[in-house]
Structure formats: C-alpha cells, structure tokens
C-alpha cells in the first residue's frame, strides 16, 4: 500500500543574523497516509473538509513542526494513492459509516476529500 496526502505549502525563512531574498518559498509537502484502521488513519477526517484544510491555523502549526520552518499558507491538493490503499480505505469506511455520519462510502470520500483523489498505477 502506498498513499500520501499532498499539500502545497508556503513557508517563510527568518534567519537570525542574515537576510534572505526571497524570504518566502513554495513547496509540495507529502504526508504519508496511514494504513486504514491503524493509528492516524483518520487524518482525512480530522484535517480535511470538502477537499480543503478544515482548520488552517492548526494545520500550519503541524506543517511547521514537520518541516522545521514557519508555514504561512497551505492548500490541500490530493490524496495520491494506489488501488490497494484506496480499497482498504473504502472497506474501513464502509465498516463504520456511523463514525462519519454518512450513508455511503462515496459520501464520506466526497465530504472530506472532495474530488481530490488521484489513483496511481492504473
């Protein structure tokens, strides 16, 4: 299984004792998607809403901690996944639709990821 949440992040450098130009940079950040039904697999539910970041300040803090720089902006791009991971994700969601307050797996995926699922390898 191979999957990652892909974000565009903009970060700022503010070094002590030096000046940089430009002081803002843009990069792609990938956060590995945990295997369904393991710790951390509900990242999409906890962080995303309709294909956007649900709580931007909280996510910027998370991204800043992971990258070691001040993240000043971030946008969710996609869940990049292979078929095996997507099938396992759909099965885990289907097994507990009440957790997501939804009637179908498609509703859950759209509710959190919007149309931002990129299936690789097919």
Q: Brief overview, please?
A:
With 122 residues, the chain is α+β, with helices and mostly antiparallel strands.
Number of H/I helices: 4
Q: What's the main sheet like?
A: 4 strands, mixed
Q: Structural class, judged by helices and strands?
A: alpha+beta
Low-confidence stretches: none
* Apparent shape: elongated
Radius of gyration over all CA atoms, rounded:
16 Å
Structurally, the number of domains stands at 1
Number of strands: 6
Secondary-structure element string: EEHEEHEHHE
Beta-strand fraction estimate? 25-35%
**Helicity level:** 25-40%
Distance between the termini: 14 Å
Compute the average pLDDT: 95
Could you give the order of strands across the largest sheet?
2-1-5-6
Can you give a write-up of this model?
By secondary structure, the protein is of the alpha+beta class. It has one domain. Helix content is 31%, strand content 33%. The protein contains 4 helices and 6 strands. It has helices at residues 43-47, 56-67, 83-94, 105-113; strands spanning 3-12, 24-32, 48-49, 52-53, 70-82, 117-120. The strands form 2 sheets. Strands 2-1-5-6 form a 4-stranded mixed sheet. It has a two-stranded antiparallel ribbon with strand order 3-4. Strand 3 (48-49) and strand 4 form a beta hairpin. Helix 3 (83-94) crosses helix 4. The longest helix has 12 residues, at 56-67. The protein is elongated. The protein starts with a strand and ends with a strand.
């Amino acid at each position: 299984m191979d999957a990652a949440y892909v974000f565009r992040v903009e970060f700022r450098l503010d070094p002590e004792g030096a000046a940089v130009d430009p002081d803002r940079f843009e990069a792609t950040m990938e956060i590995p998607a945990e295997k369904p039904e393991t710790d951390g697999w509900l990242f999409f539910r906890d962080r995303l809403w309709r294909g956007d970041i649900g709580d931007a300040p909280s996510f910027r803090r998370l991204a800043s901690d992971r990258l070691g720089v001040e993240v000043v902006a971030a946008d969710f791009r996609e869940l990049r996944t292979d078929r095996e991971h997507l099938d396992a994700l759909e099965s885990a969601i289907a097994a507990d639709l009440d957790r997501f307050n939804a009637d179908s797996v498609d509703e859950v995926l759209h509710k959190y990821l919007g149309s931002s699922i990129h299936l690789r390898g097919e």
